[in-house]
Amino acid sequence: MQSVVIVLVGILGMLFGWFVYSKFIAEKIFKMDDDFVTPAHEINDGVDYVPTNKVVLWGHHFTSVAGAAPIVGPAIAVYWGWVPAVLWVVLGTIFFAGVHDMGALWASARHKGKSMGALSETVIGKRTRALFMVVVFLVLLMVNAVFGVVIANSFVANPSAVFPAWSAIAVALVIGFLLKRNVPMMPLVAIGVAVLYATIYMGSGMPLALPSEMFGLSDKANWILILFVYAAVASLLPVWMLLQPRDFINGMQLLVGLVLLYGAVFVVMPDITAPAFNTETVANTPSIIPLLFVTIACGAVSGFHGIVSSGTSSKQLNKETDGRFVGYLGAVGEGSLALITLVAVSGVMLAVTPEQWHEIYSHLGAGSVGAFITGGSNMIQAGWGIPSEVSSTLLAVMVVLFAGTTMDSGVRLQRYIIQEWGEIYNIPVLKSGITATLVAVACCLLLAFGAGGASGSGGMIIWPLFGSTNQLLASLTLLVISVYLIKLGRPAKYTLIPMSFVLVMAFFAGVIKLSEYYEKGNWLLVGLDVIVLVVSVLVMLEAWSVIVKHKSAPQDSEAERAN
């Protein structure tokens, strides 16, 4: 019964965020305008800049930003107790993530679809762009290298997920071509989702696996290579061909998954066996403050969302006012996934007694995705009568498809950054889309196999940095939005307050981690952590200088400033 209360409180909070708070921010602060010509219409190159139906774009945006992180983060952070985790997921979604994602989308669309790195130059200064892009590139490198490992591990551990995961790509390509020929969208999507679930049912009884060793590499390493070849090809295709239809189908699949999970909660009404506040943590467990916030990460607010908002979504925005639906509602969708994850890993569907829960969560980092799949599939089986083999395959496929979506969107975004560097430093070869993609994939593979050896798991070496780096990037994105608002003469407290909180927590976490890496002699992480912390301080100082100069200069009217 406790799980129902958690769900109701979370849903009511997010409904307030969508119907009240996001409307206020969009209309009174960002002043989104239906008459504004978006970059998708102004440029419309048929590849990256394509006017897109807001529901389809929401599907792309949502699945790109979601990935596996809103499952992984909350499923780990519940170790400190379900109360602080639930509070941060709900409040973070309403006042932080939604404003951050919608704001990045709006600010980028107002500047011809520029990435946050390029936008920081326009809003703050030239030096800021170079610094900002270093952090962005590091975050993308972490995400791509690690999600390759996550998917490969899932394929090896859950071979029943292989067939439906790859079938989804074939279905999306067919739907993309049919949509391009103006076939009605909703019947196609209904058919696509139905086919996807049929493949999930088939996959549960038809596991597929690579040989344990092939070409001198393990099955996991070969999966990583295959995944990066796919990501490279997918990132070069026009967005209408694969990115949009696949992401929209994935979004619909997640909605079905959320209906199954939330519906099961109301049918089964499971009790919570996890502690509200865990007072039995093992020795040397990091402090809940600030580590809770950087651990939940994408489950509440994430700098990666700003990269996607300004990297791909802003280039496909049909109307500026669609930014609220795509950006804020995308954050709400991710928050709802994080919330149900907390319920799945906190209740009797995972552990019947508190003692059993403590056995599963014996230390920080235990449980994670495995706990979500186990708890979630048991909940679906109890609530809907779906066999556990099918329900566990369904959830495993959901994790794989989201991680895959984020991975190939991440490679596309890396390509944009490398091409921007080609423009900035006048390096013609880097301006080519194919060359930039090859460089992006080469960097990921160099990290995967260069640092991780033949297993290809090198991305995991720098993964500990992701939490603090990702949150620092979110604070920098909110800072750019805040400076832009100040220059427009509009209230900036709705972005400055979240920015300040996230910055303090993320910077504090980065310093704590730095000391851990130093004690362990992990010099790669020490060096990268120092770079991220120093870059963040320099960007903040540059922004403060711009704000001071702006405040002391004669003020133009808002119309003049907007132009």
Mean pLDDT across all residues, rounded? 89
Strand line-up of the largest beta sheet: 1-2
Q: Which range does the strand content fall in?
A: under 5%
The biggest beta sheet, please? 2 strands, antiparallel
Low-confidence stretches: none
Total DSSP E strands? 2
What does the radius of gyration come to? 22 Å
Termini gap: 55 Å
Question: What are the secondary-structure elements, in order, as H or E?
Answer: HHHHHHHHHEEHHHHHHHHHHHHHHH
Class by alpha and beta content: mainly alpha
- Name the shape in a single word: globular
Helix proportion of residues, in percent? over 70%
Total of DSSP H or I helical runs spanning 4+ residues:
24
Briefly, what is this?
The protein has 563 residues and is mainly alpha-helical. It is 74% helix and 1% strand. Strands 1-2 form a two-stranded antiparallel sheet.
Provide an overview of this structure.
This protein is mostly helical. 74% of the residues lie in helices and 1% in strands. The protein contains 24 helices and two strands. The chain has helices at 2-29, 39-42, 54-66, 69-77, 82-109, 116-123, 126-157, 162-180, 185-204, 219-236, 243-268, 288-296, 303-311, 322-344, 354-360, 368-384, 388-424, 428-431, 433-451, 459-462, 466-487, 493-520, 523-552, 558-562; strands spanning 213-214, 217-218. Strands 1-2 form a two-stranded antiparallel sheet. A hairpin with a 2-residue loop joins strand 1 and strand 2. Helix 1 runs parallel beside helix 5 and helix 3 (54-66) crosses helix 17 (388-424). The longest helix has 37 residues, at 388-424. It is globular, with a radius of gyration of 22 Å. The relative contact order is 0.17.
